[in-house]
Design brief:
There is one protein chain. The protein has a domain at 16-58. Helices cover 6% and strands 31% of the residues. It is built from one helix and four strands; from the N terminus they run E-E-E-E-H. The protein has one helix at 58-61; strands at 16-18, 22-29, 35-41, 52-55. A four-stranded antiparallel β-sheet has the order 1-4-2-3, with no helix packed on it. The two termini are 29 Å apart.
Length: 70
């Protein structure tokens, strides 16, 4: 069966980065989902104090939801 866009395949994985690591791009806190765009070292999450970040998939980030017709 084919994979849907944005789904992880058998060889795919999600990479998490720790606070203090230099990073460029958009990230979400793995604890609370708080989003940031950064071009420096990843901070401790200002919302929950989490220290693990997940990079936003740019392919999925630009997608808009398809409106439902009722």
């Amino acid at each position: 069966m084919g994979e849907m866009p944005g789904e992880l395949g058998a060889g795919d994985y999600v990479e998490f980065l720790e606070a203090g690591v230099r990073a460029d791009g958009e990230y979400h806190c793995a604890e609370c989902g708080y989003g940031i765009t950064i071009y420096a070292r990843l901070p401790i999450c200002p919302m929950c104090g989490g220290e693990t970040w997940e990079q936003v998939d740019r392919r999925a980030a630009g997608r808009r939801p398809i409106p439902l017709r009722v």
